[in-house]
From TrEMBL:
Zn(2+) binds at residues 37, 41, 68, 71. It is an enzyme of class 2 (transferase). SUPFAM superfamilies: Ada DNA repair protein, N-terminal domain (N-Ada 10), Methylated DNA-protein cysteine methyltransferase domain, Methylated DNA-protein cysteine methyltransferase, C-terminal domain. PANTHER family: METHYLATED-DNA--PROTEIN-CYSTEINE METHYLTRANSFERASE. The lineage of its organism: Bacteria, Pseudomonadati, Pseudomonadota, Alphaproteobacteria, Rhodobacterales. SMART domains: HTH_ARAC. This is methylated-DNA--[protein]-cysteine S-methyltransferase. Keywords: Activator, DNA damage, DNA repair, DNA-binding, Metal-binding, Methyltransferase, Phosphoprotein, Transferase, Zinc. GO terms for molecular function: DNA-binding transcription factor activity; methylated-DNA-[protein]-cysteine S-methyltransferase activity; sequence-specific DNA binding; zinc ion binding. The active site is at residues 37, 318. One of its GO terms (biological process) is DNA repair. Pfam families: Ada_Zn_binding (PF02805), DNA_binding_1 (PF01035), HTH_18 (PF12833). It comes from Allosediminivita pacifica.
Length: 354
């Protein structure tokens, strides 16, 4: 961190006051719009429960948020650095261009100087920023059922190998591992907290995970081994329903999920997952409380293992389980996401039924 961020109420009040002292030190990420802004942004201010605050632009981008078009946080961070300003303008003019260090030097800039300038301003390099924009274009093609080669072309990757490697770094598997013709189909779902991958058959959702989850590769391999024909790329009806329900959840419209789910686990694990789904939005439980609720008060560790083995994030709300002392415990999607989900669901506390 560049400096210690104050608590949420202090930051939110500074946002409401459009406090200029936070310029270059903190940014607000808005769950309902999926954008991040400067504190001085002239746009209408969001509700507190829809805000998270980060101390770097890189953190905002990595969490899946886009820069606001009104306050232009990237431009503001660039300040008076003509190199950064010029390259950002070039990137906006042609986001699909395959930028290389040669392109940077061709514009008269030293590549190491550019690298340091972007790392200083944004926490990521210019080439990383450009690559991330292109990779998102490829994901959109894959999510729409397009071929891997079409996704590679749309994302402007110079070769199939480069695109495969980029996808593998993010998902843990190559696009070829998600081959067509299988009973299960995988699609990408963007959310304000980052991209998710959904795997579903024609009738049920089998997996829903944030793409950064470390266990995702192993989970996909297990799913591939469990069905004939492997996993294809496309969107089934349950995945489309999941997409719509996630949109409603992050928009603050509803916290209930009716997408039919397919569990892959023991009878005990399924019992734990059903207990998780019974926790009302806006409330939390400890592992010991879950164990007592299912009539197994001595099975606290087994409950924790079942919680960690959950493959259907948000809809089986393992993020609602915290430590007995009230502290956040491990979460495969990242503790910052767990904290944010709990904050989002606080708005549902008085309205969401079990």
């Amino acid at each position: 961190m560049l400096f210690d961020l104050p608590d949420h109420p202090t930051l939110y009040q500074a946002l409401m006051d459009r406090d200029p002292s936070y310029e270059g030190r903190a940014w607000v990420c808005v769950a309902t719009t999926g954008i991040f802004c400067r504190f001085v942004c002239p746009a209408r201010k969001p509700k507190s429960e829809n805000c998270t605050f980060r101390d770097t632009i890189a953190g905002c981008i990595e969490a899946g948020f886009r820069p606001c078009k009104r306050c232009k946080p990237l431009d503001a961070a660039a300040g008076r650095d003509p190199i950064v300003t010029d390259l950002l303008a070039a990137l906006d003019a042609d986001p699909g261009h395959r930028w290389s260090e040669g392109d940077v030097t061709a514009r008269g800039y030293d590549s190491s100087t550019v690298r340091r300038a972007f790392k200083r301003q944004f926490g990521i390099t210019f080439l990383e920023m450009a690559r991330q924009r292109r990779l998102r274009e490829g994901f959109e093609v894959l999510a729409g059922g397009g071929r891997v080669i079409d996704a590679q072309v749309e994302a402007s990757f110079e070769s199939p190998a480069a695109f495969r490697a980029a996808v593998a770094r993010l998902l843990g598997v190559t696009p070829a591992a998600l081959r067509g013709g299988g009973m299960l189909q995988a699609t990408w779902i963007p959310t304000p907290l980052g991209d998710m991958i959904a795997v579903a058959c024609p009738t049920h959702l089998h997996l829903l995970e944030f793409t950064g989850r470390k266990a995702l590769a192993a989970e996909l391999k297990e799913l591939q081994a469990s069905v004939s024909g492997g996993i294809g790329i496309g969107e089934t009806e349950p995945a489309a329903q999941a997409r719509a329900e996630l949109d409603a959840f992050f928009d603050g419209r509803q916290a209930q999920f009716a997408t039919p789910l397919a569990y892959h686990g023991s009878a005990f694990s399924r019992e734990v997952w059903e207990a998780l789904r019974a926790i009302p939005a806006g409330e939390t439980r400890s592992y010991s409380e879950i164990a007592r609720e299912i009539g197994r008060p001595d099975a606290v560790r087994a409950v924790a293992r079942a919680n960690g083995a959950n493959r259907i994030a948000l809809m089986v709300p393992c993020h609602r389980v915290i430590g007995a002392d009230g502290r956040l415990t491990g979460y495969g999607g990242g503790l910052w996401r767990k904290q944010r989900l709990i904050e989002i669901e606080a708005a549902y506390r008085s309205t969401a039924p079990a």
